[in-house]
Write a structure and sequence with these properties.
The structure is a single chain. This protein is an alpha+beta fold. Helix content is about 25%, strand content about 20%. The longest helix is centred in the N-terminal third of the chain and has 15 residues.
Length: about 210
Amino acid sequence: MSDLSCRLATFDDLAAMRGVMTRAIDELQQGFLDPAQVAASHAIMGLDRQLVEDGTYFLVEIDGCVAGCGGWSRRATLYGNDASAGLREPRLLDPAHEAARVRAMYTHPDFTRRGVGRHILAAAETAAAAAGFRAAELRASRSIVPAAIGRRRRCSTASEASTSRCCAWSSRLPLRRPDAFRCGLRCASERVNQNRYLMICPVQVEAA
């Protein structure tokens, strides 16, 4: 059995995480995005060092190898990397009224289908709930859709409201937006349209 561990990422992990992110972006989106869209993904996907600085970013290792990374944020930024300054909204969220952000989840192509994303999401859920958040929000690429649908089928249904917004760059990147629903932390899904989607996941919290 493989030895899987999940811990907070440090600045010493940046180079290894960049390598995982690059391979994940270039390889795991094939079949979901065309080559131009994959190339355009690098403008908004990748490393956001603010997450590491905030202590909200996790790294998963399997048998001593970096298998994936991802985390959450108490800041309003939904997605983006160190270079995408225009996408940043660094204000702190209000846990009582706003959803935490699930951010920048990547799995190394050699370690897919081995629970990497599940472990990262569980760690993010736990940390966000401990910080007082009752919901979490995730903006995801189309490649996450099959897993999200599988998670949705294991919990109650959600209302669906299709949304779209054109990207600022020439190649549109399809992302996904399901509405939030209350059945613990689970991913919902909605019909695919041609543009951009947002995924929303409520964080599981103990009943009062």
